[in-house]
UniProtKB/TrEMBL annotation:
Protein name: Endonuclease/exonuclease/phosphatase domain-containing protein
GO molecular function: catalytic activity
PANTHER family: CALCOFLUOR WHITE HYPERSENSITIVE PROTEIN PRECURSOR (PTHR14859), PGAP2-INTERACTING PROTEIN (PTHR14859:SF1)
Gene3D superfamilies named among the record's database cross-references: Endonuclease/exonuclease/phosphatase
Protein source organism: Achromobacter agilis
GO biological process: GPI anchor biosynthetic process
Length: 255
């Protein structure tokens, strides 16, 4: 839903998507330009991105349409004036991580390394946003958890520590991203640190998001705390199913 359709001045639309580094499933096609068009058409106020490339020299040489900017800057374009990037995985050709794009000023941000024992690199990108209509800041945490359940358990515990110790209880909190939680364990853990999942609370279960063509697994989530209300927002699945290996999820959050 475009930002101009606010319920009131303190309602935000948020969207989260694992961009798969700008490629479709199995890296068949480079789709970053189409992904940017779809994001602009959806018009969320805050975008949570996972697996977004900061740099990749090999892809830049192979693809004529590769942007000169980082992927998160290219996606932000002129619509999201502020953005933050948390570099997680670094390799000889470049690096990737999480990013948050925002219509509102990002006052500060920090990337928390939650990698386990030198395995796949994972992080929690915590941004503090300053919507001008609000007295209190809005906290946004972009999440991408590991593929192994024992790693996810430790990473969820770290996320809860960040929520409890790093975010004042009376300030709005939005947490979104790829939790890789196909066994549906995260909701219980996240309830223990005071958050609610948008789709679970309204529809009984998290949204199906993977694989994009025929979504079966419920991997992606949006959690909230200290907000007035929330509502899932449906997206045009036929548009999004060919842009990544995950379909995005979207919600309206009344602060």
């Amino acid at each position: 839903m475009p930002a101009s359709h606010y319920i009131d001045a303190t309602t935000l639309t948020v969207l989260t998507v694992n961009t798969h580094k700008g490629f479709t499933s199995f890296n068949r096609r480079f789709m970053l330009h189409e992904l940017r068009d779809a994001l602009r058409a959806a018009g969320p106020d805050i975008v949570f991105l996972q697996e977004v490339l900061g740099e990749h020299q090999g892809h830049a040489e192979r693809h004529q349409s590769w942007p000169a900017l980082s992927q998160y800057e290219f996606l932000a374009d002129t619509l999201w004036t502020d953005y933050a990037y948390g570099r997680n995985a670094v390799y000889p050709a470049g690096h990737h991580g999480n990013a948050i794009l925002s219509r509102y000023p990002i006052e500060r941000y920090e990337n928390h390394d939650v990698s386990v024992n030198g395995h796949e690199r994972r992080g929690l990108l915590h941004c503090v946003l300053r919507p001008p209509s609000l007295r209190a800041p809005v906290h946004a945490i972009c999440v991408h958890l590991g593929l192994l359940e024992r790693h996810r358990g430790r990473q969820l515990a770290r996320l809860c520590e960040l929520v409890v110790d790093g975010v004042p209880a009376d300030e709005p909190l939005l947490i979104a991203g790829d939790f890789n939680d196909w066994r549906l364990r995260a909701d219980r853990v996240m309830r223990d640190c005071g958050t609610r999942e948008v789709f679970t609370s309204r529809l009984g279960r998290p949204a199906r998001t993977f694989p994009a063509r025929w979504p079966l697994l419920r991997l992606d989530r949006i959690y909230v705390r200290s907000v007035r209300d929330w509502q899932p927002v449906p997206l045009a699945s036929r548009v999004w199913s060919r842009l990544s290996d995950h379909v995005p999820i979207c919600a309206e959050i009344a602060l």
